## 1
Amino acid sequence: MFDSTSFIEEAAQKMKDEIEDIAIIACSGGIDSTVAACIANSAIGNLLHCVYVDTGFMRKNETEEIKEMLHELGLNLTVVEASERYFEALKGVEEPEAKRKIIGEVFIRIFEEEQIKVGAKYLVQGTIAPDWIESGGGGRDTIKSHHNVGGLPEDMTLIVVEPLRDLYKDEVREVGRELKIPSSNRQPFPGPGLAIRCLGELTRERVEIVRESCAIVEEELELAATNGEIEIPWQYFAALLPVKSVGVHGDVRAYGETVVVRAVQSLDGMSARYSPITHNVLQKISTRITNSLKDSVNRVVYDITHKPPGTIEWE
């Protein structure tokens, strides 16, 4: 049986033994990186430099919320604004694996720059078991390259330390609760962020559409769960498809974007079943999205695919 208290003690001691110089860690605000940062902070203290990168692909109001949370946890935090850099690197790129590879390379280049600034030798990451399993290698097929695994460039100079590498999401959450981290029950959010929820071309306008759609999905499902209408899903979001269809605005023919709503129940993300959201709740989501984004979106659909055969995210 998994013992979170013993794991924290053992992981911290291992990091003390392994890291004898300055280390940096990518803190996204998600449970994986936050748990890794808190354990590292307890193990090596002032040797740890936490870096939060605003890629331009974060959810609505997320950057400010994450900055506040990480400061409250007592982490030594540097914020890097990199949205222009990411959009430029991804300009014209539509293929999912190519996006992930580019995001991974920009990610590590930013940290190499921070490494130079603070003289870091190590890169601590919140990599967990599904990340490296799904990224392939060692005889395994690549399901999707996680930017912190399959997306890392071969010529990187930082030594990677992954204290959570053998844990699954439910175990990481248990550790987070033991550490009293506020985001311990926060739903998973992919490292590449909204970049992989915006299928096709990545522009600021299209990313803003999926950002607003995700916010609406989250608000409506959380409200419905609070009201006892549904069980809160394990993960829930919206994705923007590279598909346009004919619609009607008033008496005028419109040609608009398509948003897909995704909500699943899972334990560790390795498999999942779609959540049976009520039609009443789905109707509210659809109406809000098409009203709020009426100049862009004219169709909302709900994904009822399990994992497998589908993945949870669309890219």
## 2
Amino acid sequence: MKFIIATNNAKKLTELKRILIPLGIDAISAKEAGITLDDVEETGTTFKENSYLKAYSACKKTGLPAIADDSGICVDALDGRPGIYSARFAGEDASDEEKNNLLLKQLEDVGGDNRKAHYTAAITCVFPNGDKLQAEGKCFGEIARTPDGDGGFGYDPIFLYNGVSFGKVSAEEKDKVSHRGNALRMMKEELEKYLEENNVNE
């Protein structure tokens, strides 16, 4: 069974495909399907709600089961912000560097013991018959004082997991512990159960 990945974010698409393919999930991009996905207004109040909106839109447009992710970073000292607004934290067209710099500025007076944060990723799979599956993964760490490394994307250069920046670890190392990796492994289990219970031939 083919699934379409509901994202126009090239870096996120690369990471999703990198994790999904070894899990045995046949996922294709909109480009590979020969279509352009509509930009979806993220009006939800949770990561799960926004991932559902994106997956539903892609499924409706393509007629294929769709997998979508909504993710962000939640900082304890900022009462969980930027959270679902992580991508738009520094403005609609802000670069990753600008978002990182703004977050660091907001935490410049916050001590090391209070810089705890976690990434959250919600994954939703929507089927053409209206069924949906959801999973949510988290990865706990803290915010660095300065960016370190040029790997990953988003807030990775300032997110420390076990004291090491996500911007410095390999893609494989990150996938083993990341919020997105955790959520997708849970989604794989949900998908396997769903396909078996509904006698769907893969």
## 3
Amino acid sequence: MFIDVKTLLKERGEDYELELLTGQGGLEKVITVPDINRPGLALAGFFECFPYECIQVIGLIEHTYLNHLDYDAQVKVLNKIFSNEKAVSCILTDNLEVFDAMIKVFSDLEIPLLRTKLNSSFFIGDLGYYLDCKLAPSVKIHGVMTSVYDLGVLIIGKSAIGKSECALELIRRGHKFVADDIVNIKKLSRHNLMASSLKLTKYLIEVRGIGIIDIKELFGIGNILDEAYVELVIKLEEWDSAKCYERVGLSEYYAEYLGVKVPEATIPIGHVRNLAVLIETASLNQKLKNEGHFTAKKFNDKLREKKY
């Protein structure tokens, strides 16, 4: 995954109060890593293991150091940092003054030089989160994403098994809708997956026999979410009398996406099963497990302790 500086400006320029000072010719430069670097040590001459591929942020400390150098020294050190082929962009924070040496170097190298009024700490934190989301590994899953009792629930199963209808009932019961049909899942960390819809199908759900409906328009903004963590996977499948389904709940099952394991429950579909209630119950039970309350294990322990 990657984005370019032009996309960063388009999507976050207004929010971050970014202005392009020079280096317009480098707006197509690709940002490949979410890390952000403050080049303080490099300005002082230490370049070992320097991350040239990162966006470089010059804050008050770096700016003050540069201000103590003469014009030629400024040009020399900035050239050494940004003449590398991996260099992407430089951003001044706190609405700091632009030195003539900066204009020359970034114009000559065609490296975008941006400036924001935001302070360094706030800006780096916010930009880091944005880049983490944009550059995170992702996978597209066929299913429906909902939030049930504030727990992110991904419903999967074969086509026409009833995923969308089940989600519709959950929404009618007051739960929240995230995505239908194609769910985009991103890996934000070693343990966290974030799900969202495609832009084309945002807020839309397909119900066989009715067609495509807009959840936001039909149920209101209170029943939608733009994204949600994937915390439980519900797998719907046709009832198979030859298969042994979980009845006590001692065994734990997991689905795995992008190397992250997520608790999974398989619900067989019968003729009179209320799927929405079952998913609500599974969600509440998972929330209890997350808090350390494992009902099946407690019941099993009581059986072992019972004396006859």
## 4
Amino acid sequence: MASEEKNQSNIINSELNLNYNKYIFADKPINRFKTKPKVEDISTKLDELRNEIEKIENCELKKNASKIVFSDGNNRSKIMIVGEGPGQKEDQEGKPFVGDAGMLLNKMLKSINIERKNVYITNVVNYRPPNNRKPEPVEITKYSNFLRKHISIIDPKILILMGSTAMESLFGSNIKITKERGSWKDIIVNNKNYLCMITFHPAYLLRQPENKKYSWRDLKEIRKKIDQLNISL
């Protein structure tokens, strides 16, 4: 009888050992609330923003323009350029900076070894102002809401504001571009901080070529910061 009980005990112990080997034990608690991270699609968000702007109502700019001018370039770029608004050529082609100012912008970028296709470009207002006039304060304010969304979607490491309109859209109208250009600034957009450089608009430089020397200084500072931040272009 004692021999039989011993055999049964050995069988039970053997089964327990076999079952024990089926499990892997860790000294960390199991995370039972794992969720798959959501990957935000930049292109989809940009399409949604574009559609939102196209549905805008009571806008004199939209009434006088032939089409929306939304953006150009690489939407994954860490360099974002913001200009003023479309001119006649931009209104025809539906892309920003394709006229004479655009040609100068391309040369400016190339002077610091940047190809236009490797940056992201947009404007404060997305429809051509009548007779290429400067956007009015109420228009700048209205479209700055879209611009802020635009910046958040692209999420650049460096934001370049070209011209007083771009500056006013994010910093207000109580400052002068002649005093503010050329130095790095921090700006908060939708609760996130962005590194920003204010510089002259290429269209202004075409009218005032003697000020190109200041823009050249700004460009060199931009190139230096790109290298410091190890931004790939």
